[in-house]
Task: structure prediction
Amino acid sequence: MPFMGYARRRRGAAGKKFFDPSVPPHYPPDLLLEPQHLDIDLFIDVAQQQAAGKVTTTVLARGQQANVLVLDAVNLEEVVVRDVGGYDLQANYDGHKLAIHWTEPFQAGDERKVEVSYKVVKPVDGLIFSQPDDAYPEQGWYAVTDHE
Result:
C-alpha cells in the first residue's frame, strides 16, 4: 500500500476522519538531486527591511545522470550562482524558482556544492521585519525567519 500520510489514516476521538476524501493524495517530489546541507551567511538590515546572503547547498545525487536542481526563490535580486568545485553550470531565475543546470551530469552518490548569492528587499514571506511605527512607537527592532 502506498504511503498516504498519517493524517489520511487516523481518526479523531469521535471516530471522524481528519481529511476530506475528495482531496487526492499529495506526495513529496522524488528528488534526483537532493539538498543535504545548507551553510547560510546572511546580513540583515532591519531599518531597510532587506537581507543579503550567500547560501552554499551540498547536493547529493540519488540517481544517475541527474543535472537539474530547482529551488524556491521568491523575489530575489542580484542572484549569482556558482559551483564551489568549479563544475560548469547555468542558472535560470524567473522571480519564483531558481533552476540550476550542470553541464556535466552527476553520477549516483556524487556530492557537489552550489553557492547562491542574493539580495531580498521587503520580502513577502520567509523573513519578517519589525520596527517602531506610528501605531506601535515602542515596538522593538528585529527580524525573524519563517522557513529557511
Observations:
- Residues 40 and 141 are 22 Å apart (CA to CA).
- Confidence is low (pLDDT under 50) at residues 1-9.
